Amino acid sequence: MENKVLDGFLFAKLLRGGAAALQANKQMINDLNVFPIPDGDTGDNMSLTINAGASAVGEGSESLSQIAGKAASGMLLGARGNSGVILSRIFAGLAKGFEGIQEADVKGLAAAFESGVSEAYGAVSVPVEGTILTVLKDSVAYANGRVGDESDFDSYFADFHRELRLSLERTPDLLDVLREAGVVDSGGAGLGVIVEGMRSALSGAEAVLAADTPAQAQQVDLDAFTENSVLEFGYCTEFLLRLQKSKVDLDSFDEGVLIDYLNSVGDSVVCFREGSIVKVHVHTKTPGDILNEMQRYGEFLTFKMENMTLQHNENHMAEKFAPKPRMPHKPFGVVSVAAGEGIKDAFVSLGCDAVVDGGQSMNPSGLRGDLDARHRRGRLRRDHRGAGGHYRGRGDGNGLPRRARYRDGRRAGAQGRLYRLCGRHHLHRRCDPQRGSGSALRGDQGGTL
Question: Disulfide check for 74: which of 52, 368, 370, 426 has CB 3.0–4.6 Å away?
């Protein structure tokens, strides 16, 4: 289905498609949530946020500018959580990019997404790479760079989604807490689900949104925080503050004074101003102090506070993401392809870092997945600059990266191979146990090449 013009109707349809997809997959996003706090609510918060925007636009019978503005306003009021507030700023940037126009072409959408990136980064007092911010920035840069005279919205979102998936895979490289937990960023994953839903809407699928259950009505397990519990994570505190003329000069007021204060008493600060309304999200152990300070400038329109330690305990996040022992990084490692539990155990006892089950055919096609898993756990780093799958250790102490390549060549499929993960050197090309075990024994994993 070719789409070369984006009007209010199509924008509303895309928004509903993204919202419906996220609503259907929000538990999957919750299960990825370890940053900034492992409280398991990113999917819920992002879903509530985008649903508020989708509900505000109706069928989209007005101009693109008006519909995008209504979506942004709806998300401003409905934004929840760190990722939800950032998501609302993405759509606020889109609304600014579409301001005053009836419809847009692909180049207009690309420019609006640039505005979305700026708004999202600008709202976060201390932007952290490896989050939804990075995934958005990378996706927009790639998709915008491929826009040409023949581009349509289908091709734009295909490029956007392609880079989004790759950027999401890289998030553990940028954020230690993700690598240690073995997950990708939950906010970035949520954005990916939204874009998938938008692409489905572009292809003609009709999305139906179910009514969200208000978070306040959900049952809270009070036993998850007892009289002996310790407030480890503080409170997720969010509010809309209406600046008051009796307290501040609206024309000269700089919300930077609020941001400086919030950073001094909390973290994960997102603060921005729309007219006389200031939206604040902050994690803090002293929300009362913040509320008292904010009333020096205005009065509250909405307010939400949640005990993040209770959420963490209630969702059993400590069990899902128990700290994994950090293994020492080495300049290279050894991977064996073997069949049979006895032989695999023997290679492990000889010091192999990973043993891939070759099966009856001894085809090491599982090697890529195994290396990818070890890469996510932090044992190996992936070199994305190469063509194909390259992995490297963290260096040999002299600043020289070690690289290795996994391959499924014809001879590898028949024989299997042992790979030393450094400098593209192979220990042996033959896979008989005698040669393989000899290679493992002779390998000096503390040495250099």
Answer: 52
Closest to 17 in 3D by CA, of 163, 157, 140: 157
Tell me whether residue 64 is in a domain.
yes
Residue with tokens 């993040």: 308
**Which amino acid is it at 168?**
L
pTM (predicted TM-score): 0.64
32 with 178, same domain: the answer is yes
Nearest to 313 by CA among 225, 226, 248: 225
Strands (E), 180-322: 235-243, 267-274, 277-284, 298-307
Pick the closest to residue 71 from 87, 52, 89, 90 (CA basis): 52
Domain boundary among 307, 324, 351: 307
Is residue 84 over pLDDT 50? yes
Cα 140 to Cα 145: distance, rounded to the nearest angstrom: 8
**Structural domain ending residue among the three candidates 307, 322, 345:** 307
Q: Do the domain assignments include residue 317?
A: no
Rounded to whole angstroms, the Cα distance separating 288 from 306 reads: 13
- For residue 378, give the 3-state DSSP assignment: coil
* pLDDT (0 to 100) of residue 325: 47
User: Amino acid identity of 415?
Assistant: Q
Give me the helices (H) in 31-105, please. 42-57, 64-78, 81-97
Q: In the chain, how many domains are there?
A: 3
Same domain, 181 and 243: no
Residue 3 reports pLDDT greater than 50: yes
Task: Name the burial class of residue 356, with classes exposed (0-12), middle (13-18) and buried (19+) by CB atoms within 10 angstroms of its CB.
Answer: buried
Q: Establish if 227 belongs to a structural domain.
A: no
Q: Domain range spanning residue 339?
A: 334-442
Compute the average pLDDT of residues 72-95.
Answer: 92
* 3-state class (DSSP) for residue 4: coil
DSSP, collapsed to helix, strand or coil, labels residue 145 as helix
| E strand segments, 262-399 | 267-274, 277-284, 298-307, 334-338, 354-357, 381-382, 390-392
